[in-house]
Specification:
Length: 147
């Protein structure tokens, strides 16, 4: 499966593996995602390759000056299930809140009382925020979108 490397000031770069030399030389912020057919470098429709955040399953991220962190399956699943509008909103503000319906979308219909390392909730009715490695991933993507 091909991957894309996202780094500041560059179009997404195709890589064959997360162990390629190119990711090792990126000091961060940077992200590796799976390349979808629409986002692959060979796609003919340029509008899909310039979408940010791009479609694809997150694999790993690197904060500026940090080490690569692999993204767990749960956080990656939640990211994919969110939909582009919700992903964009979280990239703009990693502290943005989600209502119960948005949370259920992101967790594939998960219970509103679900407790994971990737979500925190407060108030009544509940509002949710991303947490843990999902928040760290979203924060790095936000840095890339502004960089």
């Amino acid at each position: 499966m091909p991957f894309l490397l996202l780094s500041p000031g560059q179009a997404p770069l195709p890589i064959a593996s997360v162990d390629d030399d190119l990711p090792r030389t990126q000091h961060g912020p940077a992200v590796i995602i799976t390349a979808t057919e629409a986002a692959s470098p060979t796609a003919t429709d340029d509008s899909t390759t310039n979408e940010f955040p791009p479609q694809g399953r997150p694999i790993a991220f690197r904060e500026a000056g940090g080490d690569w962190t692999e993204i767990g399956f749960e956080a990656a699943d939640h990211w994919v299930q969110m939909g582009s509008d919700l992903r964009s909103r979280l990239v703009e503000d990693h502290l943005a809140t989600l209502n119960v319906a948005e949370f259920k979308q992101a967790t594939n219909g998960g219970s509103a009382s679900i407790i994971t390392n990737n979500w925190v909730y407060s108030s009544s009715p509940r509002v949710y925020r991303v947490a843990g490695e999902l928040r760290d991933f979203v924060t790095v993507l936000g840095q890339l979108s502004r960089g």
